[in-house]
Specification:
mainly alpha; 12 helices; 235 residues; single chain; 0% strand
Length: 235
């Protein structure tokens, strides 16, 4: 456990020694602030629903910038072999790096709480719905990070890792559009269940459904297990 926490602390210090964390958090805050201002003050929609939806799409684009260096950066710095020879199990290395990335995600999420100040000052939003939206946002981000970290382990090029991550995440987001091409009811149900956007939409509406929570957690588990298995194979 101490080794895993040491990896996590190393990742956090690496993020904040480089401009990556500051850039990602700043871009996300500016983007979220713009969408919030537009939705609240220009369209007059005094809810977080549209802002959450925009946050979800923006997340798909900024998460690869967080995850792309997790292992690809080790290849580039020539420290991957050293990392693999540490007296740690592969799953400890994977979880340590993952927790460091999740900490950045939570920081990004906490930064958006400032948008709630004018919402509560000038309106009467439903707190439970907002809480549900944030739960869905964090779960979506965790799933995206796990996928991104896996692709980061597969390639030495950070740009390639980011592009692969964006492609797969957009596929998960828009996969429900394939329903119209499926003649089988089972396949239509499967395609619908795999859609990140449909499940996130339920969270935005205040519905914390077990199948939605399970999808995000299962994606996390599969990606992290594949990541650890790949590191074990490299050893």
């Amino acid at each position: 456990m101490s080794g895993m926490l040491a990896i996590c602390q190393k990742e956090l210090s690496t993020y904040f020694r480089s401009p990556i964390a500051y850039f990602v958090v700043a871009v996300f805050m500016v983007g979220t602030g713009y969408f919030f201002t537009y939705n609240i003050f220009l369209t007059g929609i005094a809810t977080m629903a549209e802002t959450f939806l925009n946050m979800g799409i923006l997340l798909l684009l900024v998460i690869p910038a967080v995850s792309m260096r997790l292992f690809s950066g080790e290849y580039g710095a020539g420290t991957m072999e050293l990392l693999l020879t540490l007296p740690l199990k592969p799953w400890q290395v994977v979880l340590g790096k993952y927790l460091g990335a999740v900490a950045i995600l939570l920081l990004m999420t906490a930064a958006t709480l400032i948008d709630l100040v004018p919402l509560y000052l000038f309106g009467s939003p439903e707190t439970t719905t907002i809480l549900s939206g944030y739960i869905g946002f964090v779960l979506l981000g965790m799933a995206c990070l796990a996928v991104g970290q896996f692709f980061s382990a597969l390639t030495q090029n950070q740009i390639v890792a980011a592009l692969l991550t964006v492609s797969v995440l957009l596929g998960f987001w828009f996969v429900h559009n394939l329903q119209s091409f499926q003649t089988s009811y089972a396949l239509r149900g499967l395609v619908r269940y795999l859609s990140f956007s449909l499940h996130f939409g339920a969270f935005i509406q205040g519905l914390v459904r077990s199948e939605a929570v399970m999808l995000y957690l299962v994606v996390c588990a599969i990606a992290l297990i594949l990541n650890a298995s790949y590191l074990q194979w490299r050893r």
